[in-house]
Amino acid sequence: MRTSKRTQILEAATRVVEREGVKSVTFDSVAAEAGLTKGGLLYHFASRDDLVQAIHQHLAGQWEAEIAAAAGKPAYEATPTERLTAYTRVATQSATRAELLFMLEGSTTPGHAAPWDAVMERWAPPPATIDADDPGALDQFIARLAADGLWLYESLTAERLTPQLRRALAERVISTLNRDDT
Q1: CA separation for the pair 44, 7 (Å, rounded)
Q2: pLDDT digits (tens, 9 = 90+) for 117-140
Q3: Single pTM value for the model
Q4: Do 86 and 38 have their domain in common?
Q5: For the CA atoms of 42, 59, 95, 8, what is the dihedral angle to 10 degrees?
Q6: In 3D, which of 111, 108, 1 has the Cα closest to residue 55?
Q7: Residue 13: which domain range?
Q8: Secondary structure class of 115 (helix, strand, coil)
Q9: Comparing C-alpha atoms, which of 95, 98, 92, 97 is closest to residue 70?
Q10: 46-90 pLDDT, tens digit each
Q11: φ/ψ (deg, to 5) at 120
Q12: What's the total number of domains in the chain?
């Protein structure tokens, strides 16, 4: 299947962010990366903010597709443990620079955070729902924090874990989730 121009633009914008950061997303930089004219970009995105919002939605959508693939089903068909296990499997993989930068940028702008928040709500238990007196619920949240920590560790350091170590860590975290299905 042929990739749409809109998707090509969003992938080009992601490459710009990978190299130069979010602030470098301009119509000129993205058009050059996508091999389009600035007018071609304006046809799809009326403003830079529209483009940035679309990049957030694109990246969050890709992330959710990876989580759903890891679960083998959509969130609404999965048990809470299956959702968190899939989330953990994906979160324990190394993040891209663009994902990290957009998640950070999105955390300061509610509209930009919305696509990321929606994925989190479907796949990982929000802290407000955790019963502090339930050891199983605490273990699940600790597993989520461990997966997030591993993702962040590899995103922020130059030191790369071997695939074997990353897989062993992921399986160790996941083993805490599968003690009992909640």
Answers
A1: 10
A2: 999 999 987 888 888 999 888 888
A3: 0.86
A4: no
A5: -50
A6: 111
A7: 1-46
A8: helix
A9: 92
A10: 999 999 999 999 999 999 999 999 999 999 999 988 999 999 889
A11: -60, -45
A12: 2
